[in-house]
Amino acid sequence: MSGPSLVQVNRRRWWIAVTSVIENLMFAAVLLGWSSLLLMLKNEGFYSNLCKVDANVALTVDWTVCIRNSSYLCFIPLDKTYGCYQVPTGNHQIKGSFFTPSGAPTCAAQDEILNRYFSIGSSLLSGVTVVLGVIMDKYGSRMIRLTGTLAFMVSCLLFAIGSLDTEQNSILIAPAVCLNGMGGVVYIFTSFPVPNLFAELRSTMISLMIGSYSASAVMYMLFKTAYDAGVPFVAIMGFHATVGFLTFLNCYFNCPGEPIPGPEDISYAIKLHFDAFRFEHKITGKSFLRHTSSVGRRMSSVDITPSDNHNYLTSIVDMSNGNKDSSEEPETFLQALMSPCILLSFVTMCLTQLRLIAYMGSLEVYLKSSADQLDLSPTETTETVDFYTFLFGLFQINCFFMAPVIGTIMDWKLTNKPKKTKKRAILESEEPEEKMNGHKRKHQQIMNLARAFMITNLLLCIFGIIIMFEKILPLQVVAFIIHTAVRTFLHSSIGGLYACMYHFSHFGKLTGLASFLSAMFILIQDPLFVLVNSQLGGDPFWINFTLLILSITGFGLPIYLWNYARK
User: Among 111, 253, 331, 491, which residue has the least CB neighbours within 10 Å?
Assistant: First the structure.
């Protein structure tokens, strides 16, 4: 089955849009809820064998001290209280959190290998989009989405199978996390063309897709809550896989077998318009007159002569622009790559993604560092980590509520409100009005993007300043909220930038390349995690300070867009 036609998809556009938002919320970037998933994995005992008690056991009054090697020590309290403890060894003290509520030991070696898998998985969450973009631009999103849903289902099953015997199956975490990232990103990436069905609301719809994608990190927090209430880990993963199969069926019946063009593509407009004639003109004829006069006037404004080398799918905006030759070809992909706008967007995307993902992967380390500076007791430290991890997961839903905000910023003053006049007056004056509106609309879009990126970078810098005040834990709640806003604003603004500044045939490739580059940059967070745990003694202050300075470079893009719009 090749899937429904574009006309059928246009009729179902609200169903497709709503289900896309729900599916993104449940699957797209659940891996970014790593802080909650990590606690479940540790409690299940994944890689707890790295912290096992060996034969060399020394008993003290209060402690069983297990020496694994010269790098890692496991300190297991005899009463098996879960917490972070200080144990005197010679002339110094070593700190560590070494027991989960289930009784599975945990140590730094386990933290590092699990964080490494998260780094790889979150990189794949963005990195595979460069391949997906090329495929989607040429063949559409149907087969990609079907494959992605199946990959995510396999990921859930691997998590479930691994938890049945963590002693032997901990290695399954590696492919599970990778498939989770690869399958999840397919959901959001293949939903990007859906806003093309909504014309004037395109930026708002893109923002809703991005918002649901970013908010999906809340899912593992919800799963963690169910897990703490006694729901088995296997049952949770089985439920997630079952819902994933339903998304496979939804894609099979509703995802088109060809790309969804932009609303300005004239061949797409003609196809939809003439399909509407069969129903509307039989009643009043008004729709027929409106469609034929509009399409006919636009077609007569250029000389459309289909040939092998001529791009006759010219956008309506290009047709209405009297300052350009109607036969002018859109810029090539290489030409787009060489523009300063693209290069600045890559820098902004890479640095911001590293900032956000590194914080998510190291949240437990940050919270423990704050607890150490506040000299909290072991029990208080445990409660603090659990409480703020829960809050961080809960606030991920804020990404969804931030989506309309950034959508409103990017769609500001773009909605046309034509005055009601007689039919003849409309036919005589509509064309010059469109020419004027086309120029003003482009200018307004660029100005809106400049504002969006300026706000995003301001929030990122404020976030960087707040997390340096580690001793003020309630203030970190504000950082959690800003973190969600920056994630939503960044992806929505990048998507809006590529949709506005470049031909729609490059959208998938540009978005994929930006995600791929940021994915490669995200890999830096693993050595940063090791550096904080080893050389910096668990204190991330200097890492945060360095990243804050680098974040200032993000202001280059809004300044460039502002100057570009003024010209």
Answer: 253
Secondary structure E strands in 143-269: none
The candidate with the shortest Cα–Cα distance to 57, out of 46, 65, 48, is: 65
Domains parsed from the chain with CATH numbers: 6-43+107-261+334-566 (1.20.1250.20), 53-97 (no CATH), 266-314 (no CATH)
CA distances from 258 to 18, 247, 497, 499, 562 (A): 20, 19, 24, 19, 36
| Contact (CB, 8 A) for 184 and 27 | yes
Out of 104-113, 228-237, 244-253, 468-477, which region has the weakest mean confidence (pLDDT)?
Answer: 104-113
Q: Coil, strand, or helix at residue 77?
A: strand
Residues constituting the chain: 567
- Least Cα distance to 550 among 348, 297, 307 occurs for 348
pLDDT attached to residue 502? 80
Residue 60 confidence (pLDDT): 35
Can you name the residues that pair with 73 across neighbouring β-strands? 67
**DSSP code at position 535:** T
The b-or-e profile of 177-196 (16+ CB within 10 A means b, else e) is: bbbbbbbbbbbbbbbbbbbb
With cut-offs at 50, 70 and 90, classify the pLDDT of residue 137. Answer: low
d(C-alpha 263, C-alpha 196), whole Å: 6
Matching residue, tokens 């504002």: 451
Task: Give pTM, 2 decimals.
Answer: 0.65
Instruction: Please report which confidence band the pLDDT of residue 243 belongs to, taking 50, 70 and 90 as the band edges.
Output: very high
Chain centroid offset of residue 82 CA: 34
Classify residue 368 as exposed, middle or buried by CB count within 10 Å of its CB (0-12, 13-18, 19+). Answer: buried
- Enter the tokens of residue 394: 């809960």
Contact 317, 438 (CB under 8 A): yes
CA-closest candidate to residue 224, choices 351, 468, 40, 5: 40
Q: What share of the chain is helix, strand, coil (3-state, %, to 5)?
A: 70, 5, 25
- Residue 496 and residue 414: Cα distance in Å, rounded? 13
The pLDDT score that the predictor gives to residue 301 is: 41
